[in-house]
Amino acid sequence: MTLSRFYPIFDNIRWLERLLPLGVKLVQLRIKDTPEPELRAAIEKGQALCRHHGAVLVVNDHWQIAIDAGCDWIHLGQEDLDEADVPAIRRAELKLGLSTHDRTELDRALSLDPDYVALGPVYPTILKKMKWHQQGLEKLTEWKALIGDVPLVAIGGMSVERAGGAYAAGADAVSAVTDITLNDNPEGRVRQWLEVTK
Questions:
Q1: I want to staple 100 with a disulfide (CB 3.0 to 4.6 A). Which of 45, 61, 94, 106 is the partner?
Q2: Residue 51: partners with Cβ closer than 8 Å, 6 or more residues away
Q3: Cα 140 to the chain's mean position, in Å?
Q4: What is the pLDDT of residues 95-150, one digit of tens each?
């Protein structure tokens, strides 16, 4: 599967219900601090919504539930990777996306033959506190040279206006979070994203 150029990340199902009908084809569900029964129900519903709309769901972190729900993709951060059973993920034939921030993490990620590598934060982000400051577009170009044919996802502080620069620097896909969720008109913003990422 070719990775869609636009890759939004949402923290609850309501966003999928609102925005999948607009034509989003790749979406990550990143739910934290939720009891397992609710989490399981959300991931199952997310998978059903994505199938209905011809989209791909990427589940953040919760690999066992993703396997149980018949999902196709899992995304793991470096901390998640410490606890995940990667052979089990591969046996279930899930595709695997991995977060990276420095060369050590990139080497670790590449040793696992990922289906994409994410680099961030490209720009300062308000989403979560991180020990890494902005990586910049130059780092995207460096990463792309290092990973070759592996798809590269740019994340962190991304906006419609910054997307072009990320693609030019080597990103295959651009991930957006607060540029959509904090926008006064999320549907309108997603339409703009779909336009610039055609």
A1: 106
A2: none
A3: 16
A4: 999 999 999 999 999 999 999 999 999 998 766 565 667 899 999 999 999 999 99
Closest among 147, 138, 151, 188 to 19, alpha carbons compared = 188
- Domains by residue range for the chain, with CATH: 6-191 (3.20.20.70)
Q: Is 116 helix (H, G, I), strand (E, B) or coil?
A: strand
Rounded to an integer, what is the distance from CA 96 to the centroid of its chain? Answer: 10
From the list 41, 89, 37, the residue with the least C-alpha distance to 61 is: 89
Residue 164 is inside which H or E element, if any?
helix 160-169
What pLDDT is stored for residue 145 in this prediction? 98
Q: How far is CA 79 from CA 59, 82, 84, in A?
A: 15, 5, 9
- Let me know: does 134 contact 100? Beta carbons within 8 Å: no
Give the separation between CA 95 and CA 85, rounded to whole angstroms. 13
User: Is 56 or 124 the better-scoring residue by pLDDT?
Assistant: 56
What residues contact 108, with CB distance under 8 A and at least 6 apart?
78, 81
User: What's the pTM?
Assistant: 0.96
Tokens 């549907």 belong to residue: 187
User: Do you find a cis peptide bond into 121, omega within 30 degrees of 0?
Assistant: yes
**C-alpha dihedral, 36 to 175 to 117 to 85, nearest 10°:** 0
